[in-house]
């Protein structure tokens, strides 16, 4: 266990007293030049970086009307104050969404508003200095871009947009974060976040085929680069190597197998996650997404299905069509990407799958709504499908399901604490403290309903929970993939596709 104090789990979440500066020390490693190079970002502060940072801010404000509105609109009403999981967990006032926004807003006012130019002290305007940059680097990496604050803001101000802008400015002048930039570089070079080359990927999948055959007696295939398959599955690379992620991948394969639908993975585009969203880079966001379009065209698939990953689904749902679309080469009945939960749900509705729920009777399951699915995307054609569909898939697979408290689920869900490019041990203290509200909601259903497992449909949430659950005296293996539950319960009777 790391050397910091884990916040206590009380019966109800309380708004903490303000403790200024308690997280000033928290910041991730800065990317080195060799990491920044693949992204065309400098690896150290450039000459005249102050002016270039201010110019970049102006470019972003000009090109992103929403960002300008967010910077101009805030009236300091305080509605967001206690909505941020990082403020609730750390007590640092600069983790209040309004205060975090003001770190960038103060510089915007200084250079891009008349009052800031003429009377900077009166309107809280600040010059762009190294101390300001360092403050940005610390606190804009204490925002998971979860967008919960925007749900409660009467003006709809989205702190995530402000955080992404600040990170893009920092990258552009040479102060980029090592974790995100290293991951994006691996995707550009190899095709996935983990840097798994094709032979390693194929070998892993062959091993899974053997494991499933030994466990079930059924030949369930995990195909790679099969041309003419019906479905291209794009899933987070965590699904290839670690629990509980890999249980979800096995579940996907069993669903495709049982439904008799041919599918394939791509060794060229073997990653659904798009970390470019976390650093605000539209250019790199498009570059990563283009790999998926190219793979789909090369393999001649009819449909694209996205695995269990929150921000991967947000990018697919919200950005693919404008970044790399239209997907007019797909089957006209499936012209947009589908989430794997939506895919499985449709099969359940058609009675194409059969389940033995008793296979999961050792579990009392609750569900964690992942932020980028809950607040930034949709699923299926029904209102609120992103909330209904995953729960319906779980309920088809288990007998014992309990939701968390109403004010902690759906659009009001609390972040896991590790999203937004913060899933690095450089920020472990922040991740543990930021998870406090979600751990509080989990403790309530554990105490009242005997919940033993929490399911999620986001690779980051699963990795975060696996790491921080023990800090709150929960078992590490409490976290579960939704399709891991499907994998346990689905009945296989098709011999081979």
Written overview of the protein:
The chain has 497 residues and is mainly alpha-helical. Helix 21 links the parallel strand 6 and strand 7 (479-481). Helix 2 (49-63) packs antiparallel against helix 9. The chain starts with 32 loop residues before the first helix and ends in an 8-residue tail after the last helix. The protein has two domains: 33-176, Fumarate Reductase Iron-sulfur Protein, Chain B, domain 2; 184-489, no CATH class. Helices cover 46% and strands 4% of the residues. It has a four-stranded parallel sheet with strand order 2-1-3-4.
Summary tags:
2 domains; mainly alpha; 497 residues; globular; single chain; four-stranded parallel β-sheet; Fumarate Reductase Iron-sulfur Protein, Chain B, domain 2
Structure in a nutshell:
This protein has 497 residues and is mainly alpha-helical. It contains 22 helices and 7 strands.
């Amino acid at each position: 266990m790391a050397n910091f104090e884990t916040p206590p789990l009380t019966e109800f979440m309380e708004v903490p007293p303000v403790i200024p500066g308690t997280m000033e020390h928290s910041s991730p490693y800065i990317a080195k030049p060799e990491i920044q190079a693949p992204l065309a970002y400098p690896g150290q502060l450039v000459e005249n970086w102050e002016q270039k940072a201010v110019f970049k801010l102006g470019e972003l404000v000009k090109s992103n009307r929403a960002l300008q509105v967010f910077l101009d609109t805030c009236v300091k009403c305080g509605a967001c104050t206690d909505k941020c999981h990082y403020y609730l967990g750390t007590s640092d006032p600069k983790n209040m969404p309004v205060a975090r926004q003001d770190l960038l807003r103060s510089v915007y006012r200084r250079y891009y508003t008349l009052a800031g130019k003429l009377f900077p002290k009166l309107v809280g305007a600040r010059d762009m200095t190294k101390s300001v940059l360092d403050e940005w680097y610390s606190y804009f990496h204490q925002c998971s871009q979860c967008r919960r604050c925007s749900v409660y803001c009467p003006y709809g101000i989205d702190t995530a947009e402000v955080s992404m802008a600040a990170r893009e400015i920092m990258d552009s002048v040479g102060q980029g974060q090592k974790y995100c930039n290293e991951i994006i570089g691996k995707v550009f070079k190899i095709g996935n976040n983990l840097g798994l080359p094709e032979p390693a990927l194929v070998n892993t999948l062959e091993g899974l085929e053997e494991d499933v055959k030994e466990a079930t007696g059924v030949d369930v295939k995990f195909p790679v680069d099969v041309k003419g398959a019906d479905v291209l599955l794009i899933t987070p690379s965590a699904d290839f190597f670690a629990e509980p992620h890999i249980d979800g991948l096995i579940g996907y394969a069993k669903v495709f197998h049982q439904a008799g639908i041919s599918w394939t993975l791509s060794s060229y585009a073997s990653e659904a996650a798009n970390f470019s969203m976390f650093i605000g880079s539209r250019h790199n966001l498009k570059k990563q997404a283009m790999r998926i379009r190219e793979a789909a065209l090369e393999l001649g698939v009819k449909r694209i299905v996205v695995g269990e990953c929150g921000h991967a689904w947000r990018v697919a749902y919200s950005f693919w069509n404008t970044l790399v679309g239209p997907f007019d080469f797909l089957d006209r009945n499936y012209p947009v990407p589908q989430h794997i939960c939506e895919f499985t749900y449709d099969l359940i509705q058609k009675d194409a799958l059969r389940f033995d729920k008793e296979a999961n009777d050792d579990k009392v399951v609750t569900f964690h709504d992942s932020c980028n699915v809950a607040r930034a995307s949709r699923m299926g054609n029904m209102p609120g499908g992103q909330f209904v569909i995953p729960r319906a898939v779980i309920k088809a697979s288990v007998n014992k399901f309990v939701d968390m408290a109403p004010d902690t689920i759906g659009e009001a869900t609390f972040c896991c604490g590790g999203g937004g490019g913060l899933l690095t041990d450089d920020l472990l203290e922040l991740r543990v403290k930021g998870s406090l509200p979600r751990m509080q909601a989990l403790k309530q259903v554990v105490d009242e309903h005997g919940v033993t497992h929490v399911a999620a449909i986001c690779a980051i949430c699963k990795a975060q929970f696996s790491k921080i659950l023990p800090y709150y005296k929960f078992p590490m293996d409490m976290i579960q993939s939704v399709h891991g539950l499907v994998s346990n319960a689905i009945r296989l009777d098709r011999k081979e596709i």
